[in-house]
TrEMBL record:
Family membership: Belongs to the zinc-containing alcohol dehydrogenase family. Class-III subfamily.
Keywords: Metal-binding, NAD, Oxidoreductase, Zinc
Gene Ontology CC annotations of this record: cytosol
Residues in Enoyl reductase (ER) domain copies: 13-366
Organism listed in the record: Brevundimonas variabilis
Cofactor(s) it depends on: Zn(2+)
Protein's UniProt name: S-(hydroxymethyl)glutathione dehydrogenase
Task of the protein: Has high formaldehyde dehydrogenase activity in the presence of glutathione and catalyzes the oxidation of normal alcohols in a reaction that is not GSH-dependent. In addition, hemithiolacetals other than those formed from GSH, including omega-thiol fatty acids, also are substrates. Also acts as a S-nitroso-glutathione reductase by catalyzing the NADH-dependent reduction of S-nitrosoglutathione.
């Protein structure tokens, strides 16, 4: 079939809206009509040529929601008409990682996914006879896409696609980092670096679990109002203080119980670790850093009890946990709608990247 898609032909070039060819689902695969997709900073990072796994040409996008249109042979867990969220972190429930119960990082199809291919080592997308790579196993910047069934979370049908798509990455990443990775307890104090589409979800997760002091840190002063809207109690702009770590340690009474990096900046990651309380503070790295960047600190920071952890997709097991997060949204336990600042048609998708880089959007969503 033909489908409309925004194709990344080269790094640092505008996406082009073209009609691409899409092959139908093979065994264990599912054809999805994407109804809405968010634009996450990770898409921008790959498009900007900063991803060591970046492949071009490809169809980016990993934060979608849609409807099952056709299932391939052997598919049993979803059926035509089901509403689904594509998962860049699948959940096969059979691999060593899934069975360990220690991680959400299913390894069943990670190798081919990182090469922009379906599990059988081929691509379903092509343009003028040339193969186009899949992205993070999702490629939600296409009106139709194909995914393995283990990479689909079935969600309730009354959830609007424009909001549910955000659960495919940003909401789950932020709220999940609090609930699954850090396991923040009521009364804790926390610092969140970077109040964008991820950081604000960390903040609402902290509020949901009953954190006491929630400090937001951002270079953009306009983010103060956004942070407060979702539960932030204190705001720090690093430009306004001479030593941001010393300031944070002071206002948190010796350091935070939990800190979260939601910037992808390796200098900030170090600050986040060092703003933790001696003896027990935990710093969670969520931000994705540019290829080639490394983190460092004095080992003494760890010797004296601070803990450095990472969180991918909020530690969520996609097929099990994302339908529950959609329920939390539908039940009013978390908010999504106010964070969707811009809704655009596919033809205007490049504007969404401009808005993100200018710090003018929290989340832009493309509606097909
Ligand atoms: P965003 O652009 O919406 O927000 C980033 C925020 O960080 C902005 O408000 C910006 O002003 C702020 N910022 C930038 N540099 C800063 C600095 N030096 N100090 C303080 N604030 C700073 O991006 P997003 O969509 O929220 O994504 C944030 C990061 O999380 C990105 O690196 C993205 O790739 C990553 N991410 C990771 C996962 C995961 O599973 N680990 C999932 C989604 C996104
Ligand atoms: N490809 C990059 C790493 C990118 C990365 O860390 N991705 C996160 C999700 S970001 C979503 O917006 C993730 O879940 N990683 C786990 C995984 O298996 O990719 C690189 O540095 O090579
Ligand atoms: Zn993302």
């Amino acid at each position: 079939m033909k489908t409309r898609a925004a194709v990344a032909f080269e790094a640092k070039r505008l996406l082009e809206i073209v009609e691409v060819d899409l092959e139908g689902p093979r065994a264990g695969e599912v054809l999805i009509e994407i109804k809405a997709t968010g634009i996450c900073h990770t898409d921008a990072y790959t498009l900007d040529g900063l991803d060591s796994e970046g492949i071009f040409p490809s169809i980016l996008g990993h934060e979608g929601a849609g409807v099952v249109v056709e299932v391939g042979p052997g598919v049993t867990s979803v059926a035509v008409g089901d509403h689904v969220i594509p998962l860049y972190t699948p959940e096969c429930r059979q691999c060593k990682s899934c069975l360990s119960r220690k991680t959400n990082l299913c390894t069943a199809i990670r190798a081919t996914q990182g090469k922009g291919l379906m599990p059988d080592g081929t691509s379903r997308f092509s343009y003028k006879g040339q193969a186009i790579a899949h992205y993070m196993g999702c490629s939600t910047f296409s009106n139709f896409t194909v995914l393995p069934e283990i990479a689909l979370a079935k969600i309730r049908k009354d959830a609007p696609f424009e909001s549910a798509c955000y659960v495919g990455c940003g909401v789950t990443t932020g709220v999940g980092a609090v609930v699954n990775t850090a396991k923040v307890e009521p009364g804790a104090n926390a610092v969140v670096f970077g109040l964008g589409g991820i950081g604000l979800n960390v903040i609402q997760g902290l509020k949901m679990v009953g954190a006491d002091m929630i400090v937001g840190v951002d270079l953009n002063p306009a983010k103060e109002e956004w942070g407060r809207r979702f539960g932030m109690t204190h705001f720090v702009n690093p430009k306004d203080v001479s030593d941001v770590v010393a300031h944070l340690v002071e206002i948190t009474g010796g350091g935070a119980d939990y800190t979260f990096d939601c910037t992808g900046n390796t200098t900030v990651m170090r600050q986040a670790l060092e703003a933790c309380h001696r003896g027990w503070g935990e710093s969670i790295v969520i931000g994705v850093a540019e290829a080639g960047k490394e983190i460092s600190t004095r080992p003494f920071q760890l010797v004296t009890g601070r803990v450095w952890k990472g969180s991918a997709f909020g530690g969520a097991r996609g097929r099990t946990d994302t339908p529950r997060i959609v329920d939390w949204y539908m039940d009013g336990k978390i908010e999504i709608d106010p964070m969707i600042t811009h809704t655009l048609p596919l033809e205007r998708i490049n504007e969404a990247f401009d808005l993100m880089h200018a710090g003018e959007s929290i989340r832009s969503v493309v509606v097909f």
